[in-house]
TrEMBL record:
Any GO BP: DNA integration
Keywords linked to the UniProt accession: DNA recombination
GO molecular function, one term: DNA binding
Taxonomy, superkingdom: Eukaryota
Protein name: Tyr recombinase domain-containing protein
Length: 201
C-alpha cells in the first residue's frame, strides 16, 4: 500500500455501481490485474445516457464464465451510478482497471472495506457490522422495501436460489404488517381447528 491513498476516488466512485448493480465485493475489487479484472472497456453507455451497461466476464455464480450483463439506470441523484461511471471512464484507456486507488494502486478488498468503515464512522454509524457485501445486501433490502417481488430481486442480484432472502432485512414494524395481513386480514371468518393442518400427525 506504499504510495497509495485509501479514500477519495475508490469508494466514492465505486459505491454507486456496487449498489445499483448488486455487485459482490470480489467483482469490483482486485489485487493484481488479471483476465477477469473489471476494466474501462467493460462499460458502455446508452446513446441518451439513460443507463450504463457493465459486463462481468466471470463471477461467483458463473463457474463456466459465461459472463453477465448488468444495467445501471441514470437517476437524478448525486449517487447516480451512470454519472460516476462517466467520470471514471472519461479520458481513460480501455485496458485500465475501472476502480483503483490514487497512485494507480489496486482497489483491493481490504482497502474497500477499510474505506467503507471509515466513511460510516464519519457519518456517526458504528461500522463493525458492515462488510464488502453490505452494498449488495442493502440493495436487496431496499428493493424489497420499495415493493420489488422475489423474482425481480433474484434476477437483479443474479441469485440462483432463494438464498438472497437472507440478505433482505425487514424491520419489526414491516414484519408485524406482514403478519397482520397474512393472519388477520379476514376477521369475519371463523378459525377452524378441525382441519388436518392443526393436528400433530
Amino acid at each position: 500500500m506504499s504510495g497509495c491513498v485509501v479514500g477519495g476516488l475508490g469508494l466514492g466512485r465505486a459505491a454507486p455501481s456496487a449498489f445499483a448493480c448488486f455487485l459482490r465485493a470480489g467483482e469490483l475489487t482486485w489485487d493484481a490485474l488479471g483476465p477477469n479484472t473489471l476494466t474501462v472497456s467493460f462499460v458502455t453507455f446508452a446513446a441518451d445516457r439513460s443507463y450504463a451497461t457493465v459486463t462481468l466476464l466471470a463471477s461467483k455464480t458463473d463457474p463456466f464464465q459465461q459472463g453477465a450483463t448488468l444495467l445501471a439506470p441514470a437517476v437524478p441523484l448525486s449517487t447516480c451510478a451512470v454519472a460516476c461511471l462517466l467520470l471514471i471512464c472519461h479520458h481513460r484507456a480501455p485496458q485500465e482497471p475501472l476502480f483503483m486507488l490514487k497512485g494507480s494502486c489496486p482497489f483491493d478488498r481490504g482497502s474497500f472495506v477499510t474505506m467503507l468503515r471509515l466513511c460510516l464512522e464519519g457519518c456517526g454509524v458504528v461500522p463493525s457490522s458492515y462488510s464488502g457485501h453490505s452494498f449488495r445486501r442493502g440493495a436487496a433490502t431496499w428493493a424489497a422495501a420499495n415493493g420489488a417481488d422475489a423474482d425481480t430481486i433474484r434476477a437483479l442480484g443474479r441469485w440462483r436460489s432463494d438464498c438472497f432472502r437472507h440478505y433482505v432485512d425487514r424491520s419489526a414494524a414491516e414484519r408485524a404488517t406482514t403478519s397482520r395481513a397474512a393472519l388477520y386480514s379476514n376477521t369475519s371468518a371463523s378459525l377452524r381447528l378441525d382441519i388436518p393442518a392443526w393436528r400433530d400427525l
